[in-house]
Amino acid sequence: MKLPEHNNLEAIICRDVTKQFYVYSHRTVSLREWFIRSIKRRPIHERHAEFSLKGFNLQVQRGESVALIGPNGCGKTTVLRLIAGIYEPTFGSIYTYGRVTAVIELGAGFNEELTGAENIELYGAIMGLSRSQRDRHRDDITEFSEIGDFIKMPVKYYSSGMIARLAFSVAVNLEPDILLMDEVLAVGDQAFQNKCVKRLKAFHEGGGTLLAVSHSLSQVAQLCSRVVWLDEGKIHMSGDAESVLDAYKSSAGKHTTEQEEEV
Questions:
Q1: Does pTM top 0.90 for this prediction?
Q2: How far is CA 49 from the centre of its chain?
């Protein structure tokens, strides 16, 4: 959902966002129970509601670089998918101000039957770029991705590293106002990772808004000025990167010690 044109400072606003998923039990049922449930039009398997986010609130200012951290399953990727429009919130509202590009799932948005060059063209068109804008960025995207002549081959023949390179290159070179990134720097060699970090810093210094998910705390410290620590779908702590990362590391160390003592 887009905010109307105005002069406020927010790039992303999440207001009281709740995201609910359903988990279905797969227990074995007898033939008699199956027959009774079928006659009465009752579901064979029970479903249970689980919440990925509960009353989540977040504001990201234009030009800010923010990281979401926390254990697996805490809701980090769900936040990015909601902001990107992949998911709809069960309750609450999400607003973005400006053009959003996202690299959330490896190869998401790519048609594997199309070549890399064709996917660049398609992605740019979906983003609303004119043909002249797409032409202007095509060479930059190809050069940055470093996949050479593979740009002319269907994406289904790409390795995971090549897909990650192309996805990142497309996202950062199509003039986004807001960039959503989920663990994309975990794929690829060290030289390319360093190149990506440098490009993200340039994006931020140019006024772009970055919201990133990463388990690499060193990359978070390099790229982000603010960190939001999620736990069980809620914000556990939010603040400057150094303070939150120190608290998170301390908590992780304490948890490890407690586990060792139990053993």
A1: no
A2: 23
